[in-house]
Write a structure and sequence with these properties.
Two copies of one chain form a homodimer. Chain A has one domain: Four Helix Bundle (Hemerythrin (Met), subunit A). Chain A has eight helices and two strands. Chain A has a two-stranded antiparallel sheet with strand order 1-2. Chain A is globular, with a radius of gyration of 22 Å. Chain A starts with 12 loop residues before the first helix and ends in an 11-residue tail after the last helix.
Chain lengths: 287, 287
């Protein structure tokens, strides 16, 4: 892509991104430590099959979703305030991000074509969906083996609703933004909803994990939990780490100064488009 | 206050506000129904003292905080992108909201002086803090009576952290925005943090309530919960209502089109101030 080199990242952003990644890896390690040290580890064809559930869900619905989320915002943050641009190569009108957080994934792929970045974003969330599905299968199969009913708890209600909406969000995201066909006005209408539900589903995923931790502790160590046993403290710490990961990712995503300023070429294209469409409503444009 | 009459509310906003209030009242009624129908009701000097805890926390940390939150955003949404204005009456420089959601409380008090609106905002959150404190005292006293240890569960860790940070946010909010003394630059620095933590604490409050519901169900009906007994379904529904309330309030607060546009007089004052401070950084201004 031509144009001036991108400006350096804002002060502090890299540190926050590093902290988020460190927290993400720590919470994965803590989940592994809990399951390995106190719950006998993970094995598919055994009574330990259930343990694949927390491991898969934390990995997929928190770590991978959190790392994919910033890219989502990079692609979609613009909402209704984004710069509308006319692509040089295709002549098609599309919405460019007005501003976006420049997280690690974004900076790695900032010189790639927009379509490739979108595909990677969809791929990351798709991978999260597949791993989460494995985690859900694990708990249903484990319940069947042990004769435990499904879907009676608040954790299961929240978790399943989150997964189904996340799957729906993925399909809608692909349909609106990745594959051709959706009109400019339709994309502009859906974009802010995609962003809002992206962040909401990330928060709901963390909430569902906290509910799952509480359930598991009260099922497994209800007699000793109130005596501050190491397993209880470790699992509570995992809960705190999940909240901290959500906080840092959420802060990086929403901090005003860390949104990506439009590049010079985007501003120029935006001006061109403004001249072309003067007097027209942005929602009224066609693809 | 002089100036043109405010423009009408955006389409759909009133409906969302009405839904949020309906959800808020429904979740209070559901909490009351759960405690009254299945948990023997609420009484302070009795074994039912514990039941004051969920009632106070849902009322204070979800319903009142959620209703106070939009006002917080009305006052503080501007962040770094707000219009800087020179007040006609006092000659003091201060930051006006660039855009803010016009919720019921805001529309009721939109013609009041800014200081009165701030005071009401602080009062609402202060009332929430007092009621939440009563709820916390209830659980500590109940634990002491029954010989149950305190602060061992993830619910207690999340809940107490949320309450302490909410109290801190209230004191900082009063110190920075309600009482004179904080400089313009200091207020400008703190404002986006106040907004971010305001929304974060609202989300954490709902999460803590969900954890509390799960704990209470597994303590009280662990044998029958998996058989889809009415109490379990009612309490799960309360959890879903809490999530729905958070979703609707969060959507109203963050929807771009529903932020309050600056009034004509604010724009004019902003221009005046821009002329006065040309070349200066907004952060460099004095109180």
């Amino acid at each position: 892509m031509d144009g001036a080199p991108p400006p350096p990242s804002p002060a502090g952003l890299s540190a926050y991104v590093a902290v988020s990644q460190l927290l993400g890896l720590t919470l994965l390690a803590t989940t592994g430590a809990w399951l390995g040290r106190y719950r006998g580890g993970v094995a598919w064809h055994s009574p330990l099959q259930f343990n694949a559930h927390p491991l898969c869900m934390v990995l997929a619905m928190v770590f991978l979703q959190g790392d994919g989320e910033p890219q989502s915002l990079q692609l979609c943050w613009a909402g209704n305030g984004g710069d509308t641009a006319l692509a040089k190569d295709t002549g098609k009108v599309h919405q460019r991000p007005r501003a976006a957080p420049a997280l690690l994934v974004y900076r790695v792929f900032r010189h790639e074509a927009k379509r490739s970045t979108k595909a990677l974003h969809a791929l990351l969330h798709g991978l999260a969906l597949v791993i989460a599905l494995v985690g859900i299968i694990a708990v249903f199969k484990s319940h069947r083996t042990k004769g435990i009913p499904d879907m009676y708890s608040l954790h299961s209600w929240c978790g399943m609703a989150t997964f189904v909406l996340y799957l729906l969000q993925w399909f809608l995201g692909c349909g609106f933004f990745l594959f051709p066909g959706a009109s400019f006005s339709l994309r502009g209408w859906y974009k802010p909803l995609h962003i809002f539900f992206g962040i909401t589903l990330f928060i709901l995923s963390i909430t569902s994990c906290l509910l799952g931790i509480t359930e598991m502790l009260l099922f497994k160590i209800s007699d000793s939990y109130s005596h501050f046993v190491p397993e209880g403290i470790l699992a509570n710490t995992l809960g705190v780490l999940l909240v901290a990961f959500g906080l840092v990712v959420g802060y990086v995503l929403t901090r005003e100064e860390w949104k990506r300023p439009p590049l010079a070429e985007e501003l120029a294209l935006s001006m061109d488009f403004k001249t072309l469409t003067e007097g027209e409503s942005p929602g009224g444009g066609s693809q």
